[in-house]
Amino acid sequence: xxxxxxxxxxxxxxxxxxxxxxxxxxxxxxxxxxxxxxxxxxxxxxxxxxxxxxxxxxxxxxxxxxxxxxxxxxxxxxxxxxxxxxxxxxxxxxxxxxxxxxxxxxxxxxxxxxxxxxxxxxxxxxxxxxxxxxxxxxxxxxxxxxxxxxxxxxxxxxxxxxxxxxxxxxxxxxxxxxxxxxxxxxxxxxxxxxxxxxxxxxxxxxxxxxxxxxxxxxxxxxxxxxxxxxxxxxxxxxxxxxxxxxxxxxxxxxxxxxxxxxxxxxxxxxxxxxxxxxxxxxxxxxxxxx
Length: 290
Known about the structure:
Helices cover about 35% and strands about 20% of the residues. The chain is an alpha/beta fold.
């Protein structure tokens, strides 16, 4: 039973609505209808169902040894069969965070080292190491991340370029030259950025930094990109861009013959509307910004 409040000539009326399905409906439809009538949120039920279907779709079509990026900047890269803190289908498809991948191609000649804070299983670490053949360091507090990063780097033949730390303070010796730094820390952006500002300020051999920070809602109604931008500009950084989500990027021609639902599953990253990536730059040494 659902209770909907409706206004009529200034009066609030309480309307009780109960959903029903045909007797011939599937068992799944009957169960979902029952759950909705018990007060469960249809949107949350849909998210749960699509998550389970996503996993089933992958397992049905692939074995664990054939998880390989199909297109995009990291095409051909071997993936871990489990994504830590994210979802696997768009990584396989090659559209995962395509806005970031597209930006990386635009600034490809502007960095010679890569620091990934919140690296999870090492998608960007192995991807950029394969692509650019440069030193890459990942940092993550997830105890599963270290083994996953090393395994993925070995599978892709870049173990000599990829390293890992559990503590950001241990990254100080890595920070030099022209650095690309990606930050994806699920709500801890401000604390991590303050730690990075300290490390950057004390890195004597650091020349310049391109910083890409994924915004987050951190339990609030609005994303924290304004707070991120304020912190960065207050520390002398130039905001170069704000990369907004483009849902159309999650569809690829190769899967056009699939049902719309299956295409959505392959491209879905489970992101809230409004999430974005703040791109900032700073030159260290003679001048402050570029």
